[in-house]
Structure formats: C-alpha cells, structure tokens
Amino acid sequence: VAFAVSNVAAKTKDDVVHAAEVASANAATISERISNGEKLYTTNCAACHQVNGKGLSGAFPPLAESDYFAEDPMKAVHAVLNGLSGPITVNGADYNSVMPNLSYMSDSDVADVVTFVLNSFGNKGGDINTAQVSAARGGEKVTGPSDHPVSSGSQMTYQGAPSTITAEDTRT
What we know:
The chain is mostly helical. It contains 5 helices and 4 strands. Strands 1-4 form a two-stranded antiparallel ribbon. Strands 2-3 form a two-stranded antiparallel sheet. The protein starts with a helix and ends in a 36-residue tail after the last helix.
C-alpha cells in the first residue's frame, strides 16, 4: 500500500511538473503569436486603424478599448475574413466606411492578428485559434494565398471601396 501511495504521489508530482511545462510552452506560443500578429497588424491594419489602434475619428473605428468585439471576439475574425461595410457604432461613435476583406490571409495569420488586437490597445485579452478561423470560413482551411478559393485572376481584384482613378488616368 505504501508503494501504491508513493507511486500515486510521484505520478501527481510528475503531472504537475508536466502541466507547468505545457503551460510554459503555450505561453511562449501565445507570445510568439502575438508578436507575429503585431507584424501583421502593422502591415495590414495600421494604415486605417493607426499604429496605436485608435483609428481615425469619423473614418476608421478604433480597435483600442473597443466595445465592438469585447463580448464577441469572433466579430473581429468575421470583419477580417469578410470585410465590413455599413453603419456600426464603436465606443459610442458612429462609423460608416468600408473595410475590405483580408480573406487571402492564412487561418493562422488571421488568428494571430486578432489575438494581437485582443491583447493590445487596452483590450481585455483573449485568444483566437486557427480552428475558430477555419470554422468562420465555413470549415475551409486556408494556409496561405495558394489555398484561397479563387477560380480566376479577375476574382482577385480589390473588392473594397470604388476607386476614383480610371483607366484613362493611368495612360501617359
């Protein structure tokens, strides 16, 4: 009986050590994902939402301390994947502009950039994973631009706000 008890105690101690190791590895992974998300944010989001996440008053809504996705972080995932247009209210201010979809981004990149935003700019934190992004796409897994379901080059054209530049403007 003493052997069985000491063996259970040893197993419990090993389990605790293993759990701590796994938690440490996951923390490093989250840290790496947030770091990658920051780079993606700078490249894909900061021009409109600004480096500080405060957006541009009347034009682009803030991601900083945002009440828009505070209760449902998947709203941010859907905005990245599907774009967003029409009136919304963020932190008590009304916005009515166009955000183009960024659905060409891989599931892991979408998860990383949203995780970065959730953990930055005074937001309360959180974690979005690739399975959640894939589910938001309807179960279609995208690992990069080559996986994006596009049947022709013409479908890759920008789908956001119309441009005021015409073909004639580009002729010299």
